[in-house]
Specification:
Layout: E1 2-6, H1 16-22, E2 27-30, H2 46-58, E3 63-67, H3 79-99, E4 103-106, H4 116-133, E5 140-144, H5 157-166, E6 173-178, H6 179-184, H7 192-205, E7 211-215, E8 218-219, E9 230-231, H8 244-247, E10 256-259, H9 265-276
Parallel strand pairs: 1-2, 1-10, 2-3, 3-4, 4-5, 5-6, 6-7, 7-10
Antiparallel strand pairs: 8-9
Helix pairs in contact: 3-4, 4-5
């Protein structure tokens, strides 16, 4: 697995690869736009996208993924919000295409009281509309599993599988597994036996071949708490040893595994060291330079 973290795009998206290298990333996750605004997004400049692509190579980033705007709700039961969400998601897909990235990770959505069946159907219909409208032929829409608070969908892999089965563009859909969300949703993978059960469940529902990324987060909340509260690796309820089977799983060697917590350089360095301490036969990379900005 290519280990990394979510990197800031402050000042310029082109700086994210250098920031990633500075904390020891082999992979990075970024926002392509503000995660808190759905409208009036500034277009990416050609010079900026070119610089981003060049910097991925220059700073030895093997994999990069985008996390979509948090406010997008492709399950929304209200027409105005659904329209805005779909338009914003199309923009996310097109920005990924411009940046040369293949994966846009997103939270499936919340049914807002309309029920699981209606919500999952709306997500599938939204994905069909977005993928047919977006000028992004090389980009995958990657559903992230959730902790399942409130009416949020995607907290079981059966729900994610139902969206994929209902959608017309199944070949363009992938899955991102978040370790904190998985644990909070009730999947206990802290032992080798538990990990093997989780892999069996994933393969029987969404299929291991659909997994395109991992979010590596420990959990402040207990098993089956449905609390989306990330923690430093080894400091939460999953614990350091809970990550050992995953980071050594050869089936995921070419996939990105990105930290999302605590969001600062020192924390990322510490958590990456913790994860790498678990890897059998790991050879530390050369020391990276700090970014100039």
């Amino acid at each position: 697995m290519y280990l990394g973290a979510h990197m800031s795009i402050a000042e310029s998206i082109a700086l994210a690869p250098e920031r990633g290298e500075a904390v020891g990333c082999e992979a990075i996750q970024i926002f392509s736009r503000s995660p808190r605004m759905l409208r009036n997004t500034k277009p990416l400049a050609v010079e900026e996208t070119a610089a981003f692509r060049e910097n991925l190579v220059a700073h030895h980033i093997a994999r990069a993924i985008i996390h979509a705007n948090y406010l997008i709700n492709l399950a929304s039961p209200t027409k105005p919000m659904l329209k805005v969400s779909r338009t914003a998601f199309v923009e996310e897909l097109e920005r990924a295409q411009q940046l040369g990235l293949r994966d846009v990770v997103f939270h499936p959505g919340a049914h807002m009281g309309k029920g699981e069946t209606a919500g999952l159907r709306t997500i599938a219909q939204s994905l069909d509309w977005c993928l047919s409208q977006a000028q992004a032929p090389d980009v995958f829409a990657v559903l992230e599993n959730t902790a399942g608070a409130g009416s949020v969908l995607g907290h079981t892999f059966e729900q994610i599988a139902a969206v994929i089965e209902e959608a017309s563009f199944a070949d363009r859909l992938g899955v991102c597994v978040d370790t904190c969300h998985t644990f909070a949703a009730g999947y206990d993978f802290r032992t080798r036996e538990g990990y093997d059960r989780l892999m069996t469940t994933l393969d029987a529902t969404v299929g291991l071949r659909r997994i395109r990324a991992f979010h590596l987060n420990d959990s402040k909340g207990d098993l089956d708490s449905h609390a989306d509260r990330h923690e430093n690796i080894g400091k939460g309820k999953i614990g350091l040893e809970g990550f050992r089977p995953l980071v050594n799983d050869a089936r995921f060697r070419e996939l990105p595994g990105c930290l999302e917590y605590p969001g600062d350089d020192a924390g990322y360095r510490r958590n990456l060291r913790a994860l790498r301490s678990l890897i059998e036969g790991y050879v530390p990379p050369k020391k990276s330079r700090r970014p100039r900005s």
